[in-house]
């Protein structure tokens, strides 16, 4: 019946009069008002027959109302945020798989979510932002009016599931990850501790709030430290520096492709960087190229803290420390919450320096996928969760990743790390972005290919780039194809997805 490790307890850390949530151009919502809103929403959902364990899907645009709705609904039931860009067939799959009891949508917003819900007689709950009110304040109404008796009304316990998210499902049916209040609060506090967050900090959130990175690293870690999180409509490199000047954040967190896009804009927005309050920049959800880290630190003049996270761990697993502790380009840092180890294929833990699969265990790690015993049997060994990432731990405990095991390229028996080839390509002065991936080959099984975006005003040929790599790595690692693009294909969270890239670029025929 423990209630100290719940999102409700996390929100209790902030002073009632301090702002908790904000948005560009709008007044902030205080901790006191956010706690009142959360209590009112719980009472309302309970009166509509929704309580702990009932899954309520959220299809809402990015912004402060999405953040406050997540917090408020999670105080009464289980939240299931979905990407508002999903099409009807995708929403139908996810809502059916979730066995959602209700769907929260924005008042007046038409789209496939409403259509899919109506086709399933799924109760719709409309969220209306408070006109002229503080960022994140809203009211709810049901359509048609709901009434009932919640099976488990009242405040959550730490073992109650607060959030369910699907895995990306790039190579298989997406799996459903249940994260308890205890999982989420442990991760939020781990992040806050590693980053030294406090009441004076303000995070500018540009990450989507249907994804674990934005929800935990930006929103929950800020609120758990009594700080403020300012929620934008989503990533927009053209608007970022205007938000940056207005909000004057002490930090922001993003994926590497976003950092790269911001660096391109920074040259035209040098005035925005004058007198900024940034303490650090955080990067997670994909490997940060060393060249990008170095340029970010030079342009913004603050340390870049690379972290390592995944949905099944309620986001953070490892993180580089703040100065004066050392941080290393190419390393995702030290264990930052859960225990981290390296395991071989037979389930034995390996000594420092040995290459193997990264495994984790700890209070922020999920207990298992929902209704998927086969996946759980593969994912857990001797109580350790197998991340699917390959890497090494050095004698000081710093973790270095060589790539996803599923993304390693097997070229006729020779294993190639795509990250290694990416790093070499990014050393070329004309290259802005690079992603290396497997290209099907009739004899070798797989060969090496790369997609490259050149810097504005720069030129390079495929042959020149191949020769550049060939002078620096073994021949079997050199891309046999280099495709020049104006933009890399990205997933909904801004990450580049290597698996299936050859097919998406039409290189498999």
Give the structure's gist in a few sentences.
The protein has 509 residues and is of the alpha/beta class.
Describe the structure.
The protein has helices at 7-11, 31-47, 64-74, 88-98, 112-119, 181-195, 212-224, 237-247, 256-266, 290-300, 373-379, 418-426, 462-470, 501-504; strands at residues 19-23, 26-30, 55-59, 78-81, 102-106, 124-129, 138-143, 161-166, 176-180, 202-205, 228-231, 251-254, 280-283, 304-310, 315-319, 334-335, 339-343, 356-361, 380-381, 384-393, 399-404, 409-411, 414-416, 431-441, 445-454, 481-485. With 509 residues, it is an alpha/beta fold. The protein folds into three domains: 7-179, ANL, N-terminal domain (Rossmann fold); 186-404, Rossmann fold; 409-504, ANL, C-terminal domain (GMP Synthetase, Chain A, domain 3). The strands form six sheets. Strands 2-1-11-10-12-13-14-15-16 form a nine-stranded mixed beta sheet, with helices on both faces. It has a five-stranded mixed beta sheet with strand order 4-3-5-6-7. Strand 13 (280-283), helix 10 (290-300) and strand 14 (304-310) form a beta-alpha-beta unit. The longest helix has 17 residues, at 31-47. The protein is globular, with a radius of gyration of 23 Å. The model has no long low-confidence stretch (mean pLDDT 94).
